[in-house]
Amino acid sequence: MKLINCADVLVLGAGPAALCIASELVQHGLDVQAIASQSPEEPWPNTYGIWAEELESLNMADLLEHRWTKTVSFFGSGQGDFGKLPTTHDFDYGLFDQKAFQKTLLKKCEGLSWIIETVESIVFKEGNTQVKCASGETFWARIVIDASGHKSSFVKRPYKELVAQQAAYGVVGKFSSPPVDKEQFVLMDFRPDHLNQKQLSEPPSFLYAMDFGNDIYFVEETSLASAPPLSFKSLKERLDLRLSHRGITIQEILHEEHCLFPMNLPLPYLDQPLLAFGGSASMVHPASGYMVGALLRRSPSLAKELAKLISINPKLDSYHLAKHAWKVLWTPELVQRHRLYQFGLERLMSFDEQLLRKFFATFFKLPTRHWYGFLANTLPLPKLVIVMLRLFYIAPLEVKIGMTGLPKII
Ligand SMILES: Cc1cc2nc3c(=O)[nH]c(=O)nc-3n(C[C@H](O)[C@H](O)[C@H](O)COP(=O)(O)OP(=O)(O)OC[C@H]3O[C@@H](n4cnc5c(N)ncnc54)[C@H](O)[C@@H]3O)c2cc1C
């Protein structure tokens, strides 16, 4: 039954996930509405990084505000000449121009009507979906896509007691001396030489840092994944300690970033009548924390499928539309890959800082195509398995043991 004022699709949210999927749906000529607590013009609070190739393959590389060719990591002890040596990645990394990215997606959303409201409940009635807002207003759609981020209480998923979180505390600012080399991007600086014994036994963290030019740098102390997460206080202390150990002080803070999001949120139930996209659909890469590339790659096929279903069969209800759409969003292949990544993350979280450094030093010895494909989640399943086996094969014995989960015997 098609109600009056019932949109084809109602998208919930105005973050990158909502804009990616809404813009694709609009391109298919669907009647799309979007509800978000904040105006879609409101600047996004996070800085988004991505491997440049992910955008090049989508012809969107012009959306990068910063791009680095000198990309390195540090997995040594930090002591002696050898322990200070970087691992060079020789692969471009970039940061989005947030404004341009948001503007580009919003332009593609032209024709869509925005409602600024906070959604309080979502119910399924007579084949359609009803969304109730804090103001008491209600809206109807044939299908709702929840893109309200990882905290969504609307999407149903299996319960997991301890979800690992990525946590980071970062500063964009001016420093007494450069925290990284000029024009350099540091993906992970795991050197631990500034930590005491107690800190060394706690969950590891690394420095993610880059030169923005004009004597401005971004430095962020990051814990890849931990349950419970590292506190912002301890990350800030570690960052201060790391910098002071190198004789560096922060002279001016231009922006502070507090980052906390789940890495291994269970996949949503794929038979529910509410569809989701982005953080709410557990699309964050469980082994790296990246998601924006996946949003850009996976939104066109999802929108295409929905457009096809909606236009060819006006009788399909929310349950059937969502059932088909979930299968496109989370194909069996993507589910299997996700499981492998989750397994990998579980293993990594059991590593102490020394083992983690050895693991990553090995990981980046893989051919660039392999480690990049693993991190971007662009390798087909058989290839991903081969890459993981190859990683196992080239890993030192103690990393091998850690990867299998067997108790340490040596
Ligand atoms: C600090 C930080 C840095 C990150 N950096 C990167 C990175 O460099 N690269 C990368 O790929 N990923 C990164 N991520 C991971 C991930 O890409 C982000 O979390 C991303 O913002 C998730 O997008 P989203 O659109 O799903 O959710 P969000 O960005 O959280 O957007 C949710 C939207 O829903 C709206 N909303 C929420 N609840 C309601 C409601 N009840 N009613 C109406 N509207 C509602 C919000 O107002 C918002 O507009 C980062 C995450 C964080 C937190």
- In CATH terms, the superfamily of the largest domain is FAD/NAD(P)-binding domain
Q: Distance between termini? A: 67 Å
Quote the CATH topology of the largest domain.
FAD/NAD(P)-binding domain
Radius of gyration, CA atoms, in whole angstroms: 22 Å
The class by helix and strand makeup works out as alpha/beta
Quick structural overview:
The chain is an alpha/beta fold and 410 residues long. It has 13 helices and 17 strands.
Structure explained in plain terms:
The protein has 410 residues and is α/β, with parallel strands linked by helices. The protein folds into 3 domains: 6-40 and 109-158 and 268-330, FAD/NAD(P)-binding domain (3-Layer(bba) Sandwich), CATH 3.50.50; 65-96 and 165-262, D-Amino Acid Oxidase, Chain A, domain 2, CATH 3.30.9; 352-404, no CATH class. The protein is 35% helix and 26% strand. The chain is built from 13 helices and 17 strands. It has helices at residues 16-27, 52-56, 80-83, 98-108, 197-201, 232-245, 292-312, 318-329, 332-349, 353-363, 368-376, 381-394, 397-404, and strands at 6-12, 32-36, 49-51, 64-68, 70-74, 87-88, 93-96, 113-116, 119-125, 128-133, 138-146, 165-175, 184-189, 206-213, 216-226, 250-262, 275-276. The strands form 3 sheets. Strands 1, 2, 8, 9, 10, 11 and 17 form a 7-stranded mixed β-sheet that branches. Helix 7 (292-312) runs antiparallel to helix 8. The radius of gyration is 22 Å and the shape is globular. The model has no long low-confidence stretch (mean pLDDT 95). Bound molecules: flavin-adenine dinucleotide. Flavin-adenine dinucleotide binds at residues 12-18, 35-38, 46, 48-49, 118-119, 147-149, 257, 259, 261, 278-279, 284, 289-292.
